[in-house]
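Intended use. Records such as the Iron-sulfur cluster assembly protein entry shown here are meant for training and evaluating sequence-to-structure methods. They are not intended to support clinical decisions.
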Amino acid sequence: MDNETKLKIEEKIIEILKTVYDPEIPVNVYDLGLIYKIDLQDNGELILDMTLTAPNCPAADFIMEDIRQKVESVEGVVSAQVNLVFEPEWDKDMMTEEAKLELGFL
């Protein structure tokens, strides 16, 4: 897979990540800053590192499975491995300006 193709697929992955929401927060996981790494391999395998706003999030399994299913639906992605990580620890500074505005932090 060439770099241009990889970039287009990664853009589609980001678009689809913006459709995944934590049921308790009205902002998508990408704009919340919960996605730490999007690593698309040349063979179409995707490794995605993400975190949660809180380690004991009751919706963690639901959110991770929603992400896995949606990113695997992107053309060019053969399989997706979603890793839950807690380092670095998430804080509100990781959110986009739009997310901060939506949640009243600006």
